[in-house]
Amino acid sequence: MLPLSSSDELIFFVNGRKVVEQKPDPEVSLLFYLRRVLRLTGTKFACGEGGCGACTVMVSRYNAMSKEIHHYPATACLVPVCSLHGAAVTTVEGVGSIRSRIHPVQERLAKCHGTQCGFCSPGMVMSIYTLLRNHPNPTPEQVTEALGGNLCRCTGYRPIVESGKTFCEPTACPAKGSGRCCLEQEEEEEPGSPHLREKMCTKLYDRDEFQPLDPSQEPIFPPELIRMAEDPSKRRLTFQGARTTWLAAVTLQDLLQLRADFPHAPLVMGNTTVGPDIKFKGEFYPVFISAAGLPELRLVNSEDGGVIVGAGHSLAQLSDALRSIVSEQPPEKTQTCRALLTALRTLAGAQIRSMATLGGHVATRATISDLNPILAAGKATIHLISKGERQIPLDSAFLEGSPEASLQPGEVVLSVSIPYSTQWQFVSGLRQAQRHENSMAIVNAGMSVQFEDGTSTIQDLQLFYGGVGPTVVSASRTCRQLVGRQWDDQTLGEACQGILGEVHLPPNAPGGQVQFRRTLLLSLLFKFYLSVRRGLSRLDPQKFPDIPEQFMSALEDFPIVTPQGIQMFQCVDPRQPLRDPVGHPVMHQSALKHATGEAVFVDDMPPLDRELSLAVVTSTRAHAKVTSIDTAEALALPGVVAVITAEDVPGKNNHQGEIFYAQSEVICVGQIVCTVAADTYAHAREAAKRVQIEYEDIEPRIVTVEQALEHNSFLSPERKIEQGNVEWAFKHVDQIIEGEVHVEGQEHFYMETQSILAIPGDEDKEMVLHLGTQFPTHVQEFVAAALNVPRSRIACHMRRAGGAFGGKVTKPALLAAVAAVAAHKTGHPIRFVLERGDDMLITAGRHPLLGRYKIGFMKSGLIKAADVQFYINGGCTPDESQLVLEFIVLKSENAYYIPNFRCRGRACKTNLPSNTAFRGFGFPQATVVVEAYMASVAAHCGLLPEEVREINMYKRTSQTAYKQTFNPEPLRRCWVECLEQSSFHARKQAAEDFNGCSYWKKRGLAAVPMKFTIGIPIAYYHQAAALVHIYLDGSVLLTHSGCELGQGLHTKMIQVASRELGIPTSYIHLSETSTVTVPNAVLTAGSMGTDVNGKAVQNACQTLMGRLQPVIRRNPRGTWEEWIKKAFEESISLSATGYFRGYQTNMDWDREQGDAFPYYVYGAACTEVEVDCLSGAHKLLRTDIFMDAAFSINPAVDIGQIEGAFVQGMGLYTTEELKYSPEGMLHSRGTNDYKIPTVSEIPEEFHVTLVHSRNPIAIYSSKGLGEAGMFLGSSVLFAIADAVAAARRERGLDRTFTLSSPASPEWIRMSCVDQFTDMIPWDDPSAFTPWATRVS
């Protein structure tokens, strides 16, 4: 830190108001400043590394040279507050408010049903709002691009995109050639269509309700900031923090002087590298130098030899500059520019591209840089300046960190010069990542070749690869050897061998996927080879023959297409009263608050007096004895109040097998050993790093299912169901197959991490907790056990959660106990908010599963016998594993009747964090195994998988393997309509035609049926209660036992109350769920929230209406308010409890039978994909979902649940990979390492139809749809498998192959075996320890 006595004032504007910070701290981010200092909590904390977009704000700056105002999106978690001098920041609160006036962006996001839990909604609003400030009439492509840096775990993105598209100019209707809008198709049904059975609607919102967008009404840029920017007497600014100093240069000479004075201080522009390094790598810098706004760093000059781009340009500005250059110059001169533009479209998200700069990107020399390999291949040069100036080539020496080619202390990157390409030169950038955009490349490449004019003789060759070493590497030796050779297949073969010999990737390389990355070296080269062959042919078709027609598809990257689709549902009976909202697509009751940022989540609650923050210290060993815990250094740090350990727990430290604080032994990496309470979270986190723990490892250390089986390590007894005579049947079938399927786990990735506010009472050992949970009663139980007090002393309040998906059933109870013990010890309120990495590490997720099967079948495809075994990785404590395992066994037949069927399952005990409930509760994993053996039988019989599925599907009223009777008619209807309405057979033939003409890209289709169980086989888990108060003004306060997680439960309960009481929804208020108002509530899970709580609310309302009937009969024409007033005067109680005893389900495991579930939800999905056999990429072209909804209480909510679940399921089966080390350490701990789907992953065409049926036992004959769509995401997995099978058939490989989930790019590429995979050397597995291991 500099010995300076004072700081300059930091001046910027937030939402039009001037902020003057007298003591700005360089270590404080804009996100912290907004939330903790300005109390603007609409901007959310979700990842802390700029990867999710929840904290998106708009930053506006005035350019004194161009006299223009520039608006750009930024992730507030990465923006140092000191970098904002002279800037204007707009947050979601500054866009609009329900207290004053909501903005059209907020209104349309809400009314288009683009918000569910609402935690991501402010970020979505800000991304679209910033786009509109720059482009008031955007294109659909611009909307999709603007949202590429925003993650949503709830909605499936379609309604969010649709809300943005409402600002676009009208385009051709998707119903091409029909002459009518697709939204009017309900009037165009063909005779005989199944939809004629009931009127079908497609209109989920009314566009006529939308406010128009008027750009002239947007806030003006503060004139004071313009004057500041144009002030000729500007001087260097110094901001002095507690530990660090920020120095902001105002001229280039000033910058150079600062660099000379502090040669090792980082130069901060966008902070997209320095910021994460400080947070996640523990870097510390006493001095920061800022050069933002220097005009010399922002020049763009186009010269005869190329273009010079200032190092201060953001990547978004670089993209704009390159587009301008490409539009002005002939194509042969701009190959490097076009390659860079292609890379920039998918590099990070719009926010990071708007913050990161070209100079910073080049100077960091990151191995995963998408731009540096292209710049190097294009022979770019770097202009450096210090006391003097020099230019160095951006070549292998620079990228690989050679001292003589590196920046010297004090040097600044001034600009980058990008030479124009020539007619006989070809430049390309190539990459493969886990998902299409906002994902760092697994391997990328920059390649260029220069030919002797008029020939295919190589004059110069440049091959650069990223992602295969600690730096970008060059295959320079191979390139030199090929100079003078012809561009032909022989040269390609030699190049492949040369690259494999030169680019060394050890088998235990960080990042894993070694064989895949080695293969990509060759695959990307081959793509470049083909593109150059194509380019030569275009230059001289006579001299250079074109590549084969079936190879053409290899040259085309998958486009990012704006999704579209139709959502169909049963229209409301026209005879239904207009005021009755049931059956209508009603907007989520908190949607507008979500969109304005005014919905309050736990960490949005204002700080309390004497409040402390809590940070965790977790185990770094999977199985070890704790020999000592040294807290002395931590306790000595400023602001630290206490370190809490197991000794501080006044009650039980182990409750129901769940351990709050580890004591003498740790049983997984990530187990909480102790916590630190301090006055700020920064102090608590720093102190947590100083706690010293000594361990002695204990054997065995069990990480995988296979290891658990080897050590006979289980959490609970085996569960089994069986029907028929399995062994006899195997002796009387035509064929028997055996196989196994691995399904890896999944992180919940709820946008709001686990958040708890624990407030100790002043008397009677009371404790009040505010938290996001699905099970307040469970929290109450665990906290009471930890504190050794009656449950009546513990009050749990749950207003809403920012997503849950099962991850907030049991885990909040353990974490609340941890927080409550800290609150008890210190006597202070405790705020306990897990950072994303800690949340992922501690709370685990979906159970990894190993399924083994033996199937006996006839040549016709009819399955006669099945013997299936399931093993799940439960982790180190019981949690929900036994119940999940029981669900897996009970649901193991899916939609199929197999007369001789046996299923067994065990939950394995391992040294991983305990896996827990997750949407679908085991069904999405287990049923993959079922559908896998259906596909395998089909392959052996020469049939389509869909044919085998239909042959074996339940067709008439039947009993399940556990003897529960059901009628599969809705299942059959969903299946038939899915195949018909999706044109499955016609599209299947079209895909085969495509595949016959395309060798390197293949299309696949799959349709899967579903029989999904609702509820739990334990009757008391279905009970529910409600409390309804009517006040004297006629308003109603409604409380029930369910938790609002984003699934629209409160919205539906208001609809139920509105119908039952006969009053508008505007009269009804629903605030929170609390153990104080509704005691002993069961969990909100199992898709049962609406079913059970709806019955309870109905019961309470009917009780009240029964009391009011005498009043109403005497004055039938009176108003609601008059009736209530009269009832009060007659001393009629206006408060009632409602109760639903629940569905009487049961399961007798000894007899292997029972009425385990109240009813079933049926569905079917058809998906078409296209895969790139060379890279492993896939593109989701179309999905059609038909879901048996019975009668939908709220079609907008139900369709949103189906779409969101489908996309979450698609993530499970494709992009989402949790990677564990062999030692049990979770590598995937943030947005950089774990990839949930983004907007570009969802189907290009996304159609959902709610199929009508009857379900008389449920409220209004509805069905619970929250989870069912999850498994339908497997249609993507099986469509990918179908495409891979087509590639394998063409290559003469086995028709059957091992299916695994997720079908990641690695799995796709390595399954499409070809000459390139055959060239890759294989390593002896016994000779090394891999970086990551499969835990299923």
From TrEMBL:
SMART domains: Ald_Xan_dh_C, CO_deh_flav_C. Signal peptide: none annotated. Keywords: 2Fe-2S, Cytoplasm, FAD, Flavoprotein, Iron, Iron-sulfur, Metal-binding, Molybdenum, Oxidoreductase. It comes from the Eukaryota. Residues 239-423 form the FAD-binding PCMH-type domain. Its cofactor is FAD; Mo-molybdopterin; [2Fe-2S] cluster. [2Fe-2S] cluster 2 binds at C117, C120, C152, C154. It is found in: Cytoplasm. Gene3D superfamilies: 3.10.20.30, 3.30.465.10, [2Fe-2S]-binding domain, Aldehyde oxidase/xanthine dehydrogenase, a/b hammerhead, Aldehyde oxidase/xanthine dehydrogenase, molybdopterin binding domain, CO dehydrogenase flavoprotein, C-terminal domain, Uridine Diphospho-n-acetylenolpyruvylglucosamine Reductase, domain 2. SUPFAM superfamilies: 2Fe-2S ferredoxin-like, CO dehydrogenase flavoprotein C-terminal domain-like, CO dehydrogenase ISP C-domain like, CO dehydrogenase molybdoprotein N-domain-like, FAD-binding/transporter-associated domain-like, Molybdenum cofactor-binding domain. InterPro entries: 2Fe-2S-bd, 2Fe-2S-bd_dom_sf, 2Fe-2S_ferredoxin-like_sf, 2Fe-2S_ferredoxin-type, 2Fe2S_fd_BS, Ald_Oxase/Xan_DH_a/b, Ald_Oxase/Xan_DH_a/b_sf, Ald_Oxase/xanthine_DH-like. The active site is at E1267. Substrate binds at F921. Belongs to the xanthine dehydrogenase family. This is aldehyde oxidase. It comes from Heterocephalus glaber (Naked mole rat). The gene is Aox4.
